[in-house]
Amino acid sequence: MDSFGEYLREQRENIGLPLRKVAAELDIDTSILSKIERNEREATKDMLPIFSKVLERDLKEVEVKFIVHSIMSQFSELKHIKDGLNETLKSL
User: Fold this and answer.
1) Per residue in 67-87, pLDDT tens?
2) Residue-by-residue DSSP string for the chain
3) What is d(CA 46, CA 13) in angstroms, rounded to the nearest whole number?
4) Domain residues for 72?
5) Domain HTH cro/C1-type spans what residues (predicted)?
6) pLDDT-based confidence at 2, cuts 50/70/90?
7) Nearest CA-CA partner of 15 in 55, 61, 47
8) Rounded to whole angstroms, how far apart are CA atoms 68 and 1?
9) Which residue, among 91, 88, 44, has the nearest Cα to 66 in the 3D structure?
10) Which tens digit of pLDDT belongs to each residue from 24-70?
11) How many CB atoms lie within 10 A of CB 88?
12) Which pLDDT value is given to residue 1?
């Protein structure tokens, strides 16, 4: 499974967009975006609509990748992750 940062880099490179242009759209420094792409820093949920627009991806796709990465990076080693996710889905 690719991380969210790897997904972002791949999408950006696929459309030939320089790091600086995406960073400018996010109003962040290129070094911060570079750290996000290298998984040294986390993206925020507020960034998702901007990533969607700039990277020409559907917002649902971007959000799902973000959610999967967030859950897996935090909880993948827990023995009862599936049960916890099932309970979470019931409460939605």
Assistant:
1) 999 999 999 999 999 999 999
2) ---HHHHHHHHHHHTT--HHHHHHHHTS-HHHHHHHHTTSS---GGGHHHHHHHTT--HHHHHHHHHHHHHHHHHTT-TTHHHHHHHHHHT-
3) 22
4) 4-90
5) 8-62
6) confident
7) 55
8) 10
9) 44
10) 999 999 999 999 999 999 999 999 999 999 999 999 999 999 999 99
11) 10
12) 59
CA distances from 12 to 22, 60, 80, 92 (A): 8, 17, 35, 32
The residue type found at 91 is S
91 in Cβ contact with 83 (< 8 Å): no
Residue 82 is part of a domain; what is its CATH number?
A: 1.10.260.40
- For the chain, the domain total comes to 1
Residues 13, 11, 7, 82: what is their CA dihedral angle, to the nearest 10 degrees?
A: -170
Q: Find out whether 65 and 11 touch, Cβ atoms under 8 Å.
A: no
